[in-house]
């Protein structure tokens, strides 16, 4: 089987069939992909083949909104066999809050940002990082809404405190620290990009798999 590692395309990732790959590169200016005969080689190349490091995040919450304490976790995926790959149950990092899918997604983002900030602080970051999520809520809140909320005193349009304010506050602390260092290095601001879920993207699938392992109670990374 041939695997296609799309480094530059509409939805970077690894695809196991040409039609899925073609959708991501056709009519994309500067599209770049490579073919491999193993998924592991393709996934490894995805994170080693370009000037930007790709990180995929996901959250899982079973019975979201239906149960008082649903099984929930998050996943952070860097590449095959990476020691930074993480599967984390929500109860270990967010024990006082009711688990929701949104909190799981945001905690995955917080985990990834904390790793980026640590690498910068330790001077071990060799290139900028781009984070991918299949949650429009996470992408839009990070790239657009959170700055508006902060300027409004963390109030939404109705005047109520923004849901998950506690997580967004931490996220913006990391965002500010990262962007300050990125600017000093001549890099663009940290960004989160939307990746379509369930479109055959193996990297996004691995993040989903890690999130579900976290919901199962596994804790590593």
Automatic annotation (TrEMBL):
Presence of the UniProt keyword Nuclease in the record: yes
GO molecular function: metal ion binding; nucleic acid binding; RNA-DNA hybrid ribonuclease activity
Pfam families: Cauli_VI, RNase_H
Gene Ontology biological process terms from the UniProt entry: DNA replication, removal of RNA primer
Organism placement in taxonomy: Eukaryota, Fungi, Dikarya, Ascomycota, Saccharomycotina
CDD domains, alphabetized: RNase_HI_eukaryote_like
Segments forming domain RNase H type-1: 49-216
Lineage: superkingdom: Eukaryota
Annotated source species: [Candida] subhashii
Alphabetic keyword roster: Endonuclease, Hydrolase, Metal-binding, Nuclease
E.C. number(s) listed in UniProt: 3.1.26.4
Name this polypeptide is given: ribonuclease H
Catalysed conversion reaction: Endonucleolytic cleavage to 5'-phosphomonoester
The keyword Hydrolase belongs to this UniProt entry's keyword annotation: yes
